Amino acid sequence: MGCLHLMGLFSCQDNDEEGTVKIYNRETQPILKSVGVSTLISDSGVIRYKIISEDWFIYDRTQPQYYSFEKGLFLEKFDEQYHVDAFINCDTAYYYNETRVWELRGRVCVKNLKGETFKTSLLFWDMNQHQIYSPAYMVVDGIEQDLEGYDFRSNESMTDYLIHSSSGAFPMGEDREVPRPNDQELIMFSSDTTQTNTAT
């Protein structure tokens, strides 16, 4: 990640009533705290993300090193033409520097460019592999179908995704004939996996 604009310094020491200095354990304390964050982040020299958060802690001595957004995070993702192709909102977020993985927790909500909404309590975003995934329960409010299930995987734009152990509602027009599967199709329909592929 690049172009990180940080504001404010988090003090790792404090004075007691007698004037002595208390030194906290730097292995577990943040080196920086930024308050009222609104910043752009570049990837390979190209601006790809905008982050808005109430606070931003940077832990440089922990293993692994990470950033913490304890009071929530709102993130916009841009495509190559700087169009917003996804919105992400969550209660708490962590970013791990070495692996370039985001961990989003709490009320996680993602909306893609098509207007589909994804809701879960835990979501991971691997920026190296360009994948978004979650082992937790996921609800998808789609344009053409509503889905729910576990073991969610998607591309970064949330337009090509896969849900295991899924169920959902697939609306049909009144004038549309209900298909009647043959024996071979019934075997295929017994799979517990639902996949949606959409051209990006």
Describe this structure in words.
The chain has one helix at residues 183-189; strands at 13-15, 21-23, 32-43, 46-59, 66-69, 73-78, 84-90, 92-96, 101-112, 117-126, 131-134, 138-141, 146-155, 161-169, 193-196. It has 200 residues and is mainly beta. Strands 3, 4, 5, 6, 7, 8, 9, 10, 11, 12, 13, 14 and 15 form a 13-stranded antiparallel β-sheet that branches. It has one domain: Lipopolysaccharide (LPS) transport protein A like domain (lipopolysaccharide transport protein A fold, Sandwich), CATH 2.60.450.10. The two termini are 24 Å apart. The chain has 1 helix and 15 strands. The longest helix is centred in the last third of the chain and has 7 residues, at 183-189.
Question: Topology of this structure?
Answer:
Elements: E1 13-15, E2 21-23, E3 32-43, E4 46-59, E5 66-69, E6 73-78, E7 84-90, E8 92-96, E9 101-112, E10 117-126, E11 131-134, E12 138-141, E13 146-155, E14 161-169, H1 183-189, E15 193-196
Antiparallel strand pairs: 1-2, 3-4, 4-5, 4-6, 5-8, 6-7, 7-9, 8-9, 9-10, 10-11, 10-12, 11-13, 12-13, 13-14, 14-15
| Number of E-type strands | 15
What's the pLDDT, averaged over the residues? Answer: 77
Radius of gyration: 21 Å
The CATH superfamily is: Lipopolysaccharide (LPS) transport protein A like domain
- What structural class do helix, strand and pairing data support? mainly beta
Number of helical segments with 4 or more residues: 1
